[in-house]
Write a structure and sequence with these properties.
Blueprint (H helix, E strand, L loop, with lengths): L2 H20 L4 H5 L9 H20 L4 H4 L2 H5 L14 H5 L6 H20 L9 E3 L6 E2 H29 L1
Antiparallel strand pairs: 1-2
Helix pairs in contact: 1-7, 1-8, 3-7, 3-8
């Protein structure tokens, strides 16, 4: 199995988790926070999708799905269009509310389709391409994609845990 196939499979697993986590939850449940400093499911899914969108667009040299396909307007969040959630405050997290499961999953599906299309056009040799020289050692495409997957899986797991708490409280 090629490395690009493994990465594509892993992104598919993230997509499955996003659908499992968001499915059947209403906007209030998606915005629920354990306390004032906690992240909500809506913010976690939005953020993990924004990171994937941002990082894949960067390595592909394309515009993000967020802006190119109108998702920024559909979400209507009070953030700059370039915001990914990285470094946001608790107050910022609280602004991700009134967002439906369908909107979150739809945006993720669009980013997933774009990401996997990009990977289908890559070979394993492409994974060795340096995409960021600001680090020592420089970051290759493979390392950047694994970083995206690690972030996505971590946040999808956090969202799944929160959904489990919500279901137990019912």
């Amino acid at each position: 199995m090629a490395g690009t196939d493994i990465l594509t499979d892993a992104l598919g697993r993230v997509r499955e988790l996003v659908h499992e986590v968001t499915g059947e939850l209403d906007p209030a449940e998606l915005a629920y926070r354990l306390d004032r400093e906690a992240n909500s499911i809506a913010w976690l899914v939005w953020h993990l999708t924004r990171i994937q969108d941002d990082h894949l667009a960067d390595v592909a040299g394309t515009e993000q799905v967020w802006t190119s396909r109108g998702w920024v307007a559909r979400f209507g969040l009070p953030f700059d269009a370039s915001a990914t959630g990285y470094g946001q405050t608790s107050e910022d997290v609280a602004q991700v509310r009134g967002v439906s499961a369908e909107l979150l999953a739809g945006y993720h599906d669009d980013v997933h389709a774009t990401s996997t299309a990009y990977l289908r056009e890559r070979t394993d040799d492409d994974l060795d391409r340096v995409v960021d020289e600001r680090w020592d050692p420089p970051v290759t495409l493979a390392v950047r994609l694994v970083s995206v997957l690690a972030d996505d899986l971590q946040h999808a797991g956090q969202a799944a845990y929160l959904k489990g708490l919500l279901e137990r409280a019912r």
